[in-house]
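**Backbone shape codes:**
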Amino acid sequence: MTVFDILAKRNADKLRAVRADGASIRYHLRMDNSEAGVIDAFELFNGVSLAFNSIPQGTASWDDIEPLELQIDWCLRGRFQLDDGIRLGDGELAVHDERVRKRSMRFPAPLYTGFTIRISQSEGAEVLSRLLSLDFDALAQRLTGSSGCKIYAPDPSMKALLESFWDIDEREPLMRLRLKALELISLVNATPRLAPRTEDYLQRSTIDSLERGMRLLGSNLEQNVAVADVAEASCMGISAFKEKFTKTFGITPMAYRRQCRMERAAQLLGATDKSISDIALSVGYRNPSKFSAAFAAAFGRSPSGYRAANSSGSAHLANAFQSRE
């Protein structure tokens, strides 16, 4: 039984297997707000799994098993937070062990895309030690430190390798992902001084204020909202709010509001028969031409072209924004 099998059994109301194709199993992760994330899990070796994660904004709370294992999380884009203080952003690599509790996972950006490699410290460690001729226990201790977690900024060579995991197509995916995982562990082992992340942690109260601002930016999309008003509601000056919002969520405040508008427009185009001009008004655009230009910039096609290609219902939005299906 894999780690995901155990998690799904303990969290039947949160994690559900929806498809198996031989190489992988797809799970739906139900968020606390009832939105659904997608996890594609591969069992690479005995005790070593790889999961591609595409998770919408929200919080997922579950009963984790705190197994004796090493986890490597890499964020392609978005943001990922644990209550233990781990915050992972675009291009960052986190390595942590069972000392880090995983009861609540927060995804503050509109979409988190990344992967997780889980290596059990019994079977998985033994397999990798044998295949790569390395001291896995010493490697795990170096990577996690005294706190059980470290966050790194990969160098260009390692970043290129991490990004290449998404290049795998349907041709022998399991074997090719095995080789990439082995290459990654080998490269990490051969890099004695991984560069630590330089970003400072924010206090919980600051993050709460920023998330309050994010909720305001994502609401009342038909109205005009000034960043100054959102900053004031977040108890910050406008410059501090812009800087901290962008650093925390990887997107500027107004770009985030524009993204929310376009996502809402896409939902209405796919699920209703409203005219394009009415949809434009409902997301704050009085000029249909400006709306069409903004929509095309976000989705790569006009509103009418998008509607024609996505007339099957609500699945269109997830497909449009997920980078891996």
About this structure: The chain has a mean pLDDT of 87. The radius of gyration is 21 Å. The CA atoms of residues 142 and 188 lie 11 Å apart. The longest strand covers residues 104-120.
